[in-house]
Every structure is written in structure tokens, then in C-alpha cells.
Amino acid sequence: MKTDTTISKYALAYSNYHDLLNNTLLAESPNYWQAGCIFDTVLDFLALSIANSLDNTEDINITKTEAQKAVSDVLAKYNCDIIFNQNGTQQVPANVYYNGTSTIPGTAQCANWYDDAGWWGIACSKAYDPFYEKLFTPETKVKAQNIAKACWIAMETGTYTQYGGAPNVYLTAINQNSPYINKTAPRYEGGVWQANFGDPLTAKLGPFQDSVVNGLWFTLSTRLYKISEDFELQKRISPYIDSFVSFFKQWITDSEYSILFKTGEQSGLIRERYPAYNNSVQNYGGSTLVNPNSWYEANTCWAGDQGLYLGGFYEYSTIILSEESFANETMNVILSGIPNMTTTNPITPIQNNIIAPWFPYTPNNGLKVTDSGDYASGSGICMRYLLYGYLKGSNPISEKLSNTSDPLYSLIQTSAEACLNKTYPQFGNISFDKFNSLSILTLSLALQMKK
How many distinct helices (H) and strands (E) make up the chain? Predict the structure, then answer.
């Protein structure tokens, strides 16, 4: 039954969608990765809307034709050409960018670092999923599927600004005689890097084995392995899935620098980056902090990473059945940790509070200080993967969100009420402020739909 609250939530969600479509996704020069991230949630909203699942009203009803046009218009701005990367030696099967031609466009519009391609790959992989089939025409379905595969290949082999592939960044640095290789030897084998090498002691954003690029890589890999039905691609992906899980297991059990920041006996949050190189800070006299160590000491976590790892481990639990128990345990730890990501108490779960994009929610948090405009998206990304798992059913995410007395359920609904009441914080990026609201409201409406 429709209520005033659900109608108001849908009206605000629709307003956010309409604004994001016209003023971000179809804008003249949108930020490449941000557009891909937003498009992913727009697909969720459209799929639920045309299924008449969000209690929409006649005044703002979204038809299948309208949804397909929106998807087609977005994909029409997206090119997937084969070009040479910057060193001119390697063909890149995916130079995925907006408003591009066969020549290299401006970097602001392009996939630059490896993680940039991951956002578009995951969004476009939904063209394989029957739940989203009404959003695509036969033409746009093929195009989106090709984009998804091309983005994975770009992460594996390189983009036009990055070459060698995300899994091979350290080897590439060795082959290029980088002066920084002794400072940045990976602690464990198997992860990926978000960019080729610069000076790790002075760089603020990379190169690191960030959790985000690893989460994108894991989620895109497991999803394409599961649903692409491309046998050759599956054979290519499979060793990377095994390699990442081995990498993650070593990090999560690392007694000195675990990737997991524990918030309780059975709860925790994925740290924003894998916390250390193979060398320790003592190798440098104890006075110079290798950058990941400083982030580790700040216990910095990002809400977006929690969503990405939930997404990856959900897919993993369904394709490697012998690992289902480990995957479910990991998801449950993260799910129990998310209620700590609130805008007040950074340690103890608060039921009547709202989700924050970063943890701890302090003025000097490195994510806020260094790149608040990008990291502002954390809340919406987290909500998107909670929605994905909830709709799939029969997994720890859906079980958790089906319990209306659980702190996570309360956190979602309180956050949605804050969006409706215009008390949800703004984080300095207008597009992501609307995106966060759209993601939160879409999940809230989906939960109410099945109550």
C-alpha cells in the first residue's frame, strides 16, 4: 500500500535521478569514473521503477521506453575504441571515455587510473543480468556487455595512460628500473594497484594497493565470471579470482597490519588501503612514514569499500561453493561493522543515526582532507551493494536487511528520512550528494516494498 512517506521518498528519488541524468551523465564533460559510478545506481532505480516496485505515482511514472532511452543516451556518449597507450607499444582493448573520438581525448574525460575502468565495467555488467533486461534494447545490451568485458581487459592489460595492467604494476616498475621499488615491495602477492609508480613517500593518492581498486577488480572479475557466459573470458579471469582471495586472506589475518579494522568481536570495516609495504617504517629510521602506514594508524575506512567487498564476496560465494563459508563470514563481519560508519560516535553502533561516507567521521580524516569530492560517494556506493545483495536473496546481506530490528536496517531508514527531511549532510560534490540520496532512498523503498 502506498503511504505519504513512500510517495515522498519516490518523488525525491525521481528528482535526484532526473537531475543526475541530465546534469551529470549527459553533461558536456562529465567526470569519467564518477559518471560510471552514478550510472550503476541509475540502473538500479530504473529497473525497480519500471517493475512498479517502488510505489511510484502516475505523475512520475517511468515507462520502459523512457528507461531504455535514458540508458541508450548515456551509452551513446561512451566510446570503446582500440588505441595505443602512451608508450605506443601495446594495444589497449578499452579506452573507455565520454565524448571521445579515435584520438586520445582530454584526461578529465577518460579512464586514467585502473580503478576508473572498474566503475563502468561493473555498471555495464548489469546488461547480463535478467533483472535489468527491460532497460536495454538488443543493440544497447550488446554494447554494454562489450563495454563490461573491455573494462575488465583494460584493468588487466592497461589503459592509454597506464600500461602493463593493474596486477602487474610492481613488475612493470621493476622492468622500468623505478627508483621506488625498494620502498614499495608488496607485502603479499596477488593484489592490484590503482596506478603505475611515482614516489610513494610524497604521493597523496597513489600508487597504492588501495582497497577500492582491489574491490572493483574482485567484484568485476567475479561478476563477469559468473554471468558473462564467455568461456574464454572465464578461463582468463579464473586465476585472478584465486590470486585475489589468497591475497585477501593473508591480509585479513596479518597480525601486524590487518586490512580489517575491528569494531567488535565479530564486526569490522575494510581499511581504505592495504596498510603496508613489505618493508617496515623502521627501515627508514623510524621517522619517515611510508604513506599506507600513516593511513593504517588513522584507522581510515571508506563506506564505498564496504559495499564493493560485499559485492565481490557475494558473487564469490555463489561460484566457488567450497569457499561459501569464508565468503559468508567475511560478509557478516562487514555487515556488522557498517553501523559504526555514522556521523557521530565512530566506534559504537548508533541505531538512530545516519551513514557517513568515511570513518572516523572527523574533520581531519584523510579521505575528507585529501579528496572529499570523490570519497563523498561512499554512502551511496555502500547502499548500492546492500540493495544488490538484498534483491538477490538467500545470502547474508538479504538476511541482515530482512531483520527490521537490526541496527543496519535502522541505519538505512534513518538515513532515508534524513534525505527526505533535507538533514542528510552535503559533502562538497553536488552530483554525489544527489547520488547518495538516490541510492539511500532506492534501498529504503525496496526494503519497504517487501515488508
Answer: 16, 6
% of the chain at pLDDT higher than 90: 57
pTM: 0.91
Enter the C-alpha cell of residue 181.
621499488
Q: What's the CA gap between 357 and 365, in Å, rounded?
A: 11
- What one-letter code names the amino acid at 44? D
Q: Which residues contact 1 (CB under 8 A, 6 or more apart)?
A: none
Q: What crossing angle do the helices spanning 378-392 and 303-319 adopt, rounded to 10°? A: 20
**Identity of residue 63:** T
**Is residue 58 classed exposed, middle or buried when 0-12, 13-18 and 19+ CB atoms within 10 A define those classes?**
exposed
**Per-residue pLDDT tens for 370-406?**
889 999 999 999 999 999 999 999 999 999 999 999 9
C-alpha 10/C-alpha 362 separation (Å) is: 32
Question: What mean pLDDT is reported for the chain?
Answer: 84
Bridge partners of 84? 91
Contacts of residue 238, Cβ cutoff 8 Å, sequence gap at least 6: 225
Task: Supply angle C-alpha 373, 375, 378, rounded to 5.
Answer: 130
Q: What is the DSSP letter of 92?
A: E
Q: Is the pLDDT of residue 161 over 60?
A: yes
If DSSP codes are grouped into helix, strand and coil, which group holds residue 104? coil
Q: Cell 535489468, residue?
A: 132
In this structure, which amino acid lies at residue 193?
Answer: W
Euclidean distance between CA atoms 150 and 225, whole angstroms: 14
